Amino acid sequence: MVKNVYFEIYKKQFIKMVNDDKNKHLYKGGRPRKISIDYYLDVIYFVITNGGCWKKLDLLPDIKIRGDSIRKQFVRWRPYFNKLNATISEYYKVKTAHLTDTFIDSTDVINSNGLKRFAKYGQKFKGKRATRIHTIVDSNQIILSCVITPASINDGKITPILINRLIKIYKPTYHNPIYVVGDKGYINNGLKIQFKKRNIILVYPYRKNQKMSNTYKNKKKLNKRHIVENTYSKLKRGYKRINNLYDRDIKNYKTTIEIANSINIIEKLLKN
After folding, report:
1. N or C: which end of the chain has fewer CB within 10 A?
2. Neighbouring C-beta atoms of residue 78, cutoff 10 Å
3. What are the pLDDT digits (tens) for 91-123?
4. Given this model, what pLDDT does residue 44 score?
5. Is residue 256 part of a domain?
6. How many Cα atoms are found within 13 Å in the side-chain-facing hemisphere of 217?
7. Whole domain around residue 199: which residue ranges?
């Protein structure tokens, strides 16, 4: 299994968190472990980066744990993953409070394993049920706000939810507003006026039949819309399990996205 220096840092923090809870009698253990937490995490990372379902691990001779056992352990550790991801995100928020440009968009992924509530026919994958990931990212290609819906849900309907979560995180002010840059799918003058009162500036390209135009400053921001597309590309190529939804519990899929985002945060902070 390929090692990743940023995941190794993430893994150390995770193991420390699990061991601390074990010492405080918050971790419910059973028989003594024959296989270390370190190895479990390596296999989980292998699945997240290479994609596929957990049961396919049974076909790999190098993996000495059954795929179903790894899946159960992943679900059992989900509260730890969520807690660590929240801690990393909070630290990142403090370090990047000066960043004011954000970018909003969505992407579809094929829903391969049920999840009927989140699987609908969309425009991207003809004849296949898909799930849509709506996100707001910053200029560092880090996800700040994320909502998962069926692929049939329009982007505009989710915009208020994403922005409200962004406001809770960064609490913009009149003198330090946050710009949210989107494409033509996010054109909504009512929302633009509504969120301007809350110090959120919605920026999007106008249609040809609209008698409005963006300022030079906003046009420069629109030229950076590729950042959110690059974010999706980085996630889907680096963490192939995100590119195809196999989980039957959407919480597991959300946790996978958060783990990938946390590793990207660690990478960004260390490089800067």
Report:
1. C
2. 15
3. 999 998 888 899 999 999 888 766 677 777 767
4. 94
5. no
6. 4
7. 98-245
Question: Does some domain include residue 60?
Answer: no
Nearest to 264 by CA among 102, 92, 146, 122: 92
Place of tokens 């829903």: 111
Helix axes 250-271, 78-95, angle to 10 degrees: 40
CATH code assigned at 185: 3.30.420.10
Whether residue 199 lies inside any domain: the answer is yes
* Structure tokens belonging to residue 233: 């590309």
CA distance 236 to 232: 6
pLDDT in tens, 170-183: 888 889 999 999 99
Q: Whole-angstrom Cα distance, residue 228 to residue 246? A: 24
Print the SS3 string covering the chain. Answer: CCCCHHHHHHHHHHHHHHHHHHHCCCCCCCCCCCCCHHHHHHHHHHHHHHCCCHHHHHHCCCCCCCHHHHHHHHHHCHHHHHHHHHHHHHHHHHHCCCCCEEEEEEEEEEECCCCHHHCEECCCCCCCEEEEEEEEEECCCCEEEEEEEECCCCHHHHHHHHHHHHHHHHCCCCCCCEEEECCHHHCCHHHHHHHHCCCEEEECCCCCCCCCCCCHHHHHHHCCCHHHHHHHHHHHHHCHHHHEECCCCHHHHHHHHHHHHHHHHHHHHHHC
What residue ranges of the chain have pLDDT lower than 70? 1-2, 22-33, 113-115, 122
The answer to whether residue 188 is domain-embedded is yes
Q: Which phi-psi region, left, alpha or beta, contains residue 96 (left: φ > 0; alpha: ψ -120 to 50)?
A: alpha
Domains in the chain: how many in total?
Answer: 1
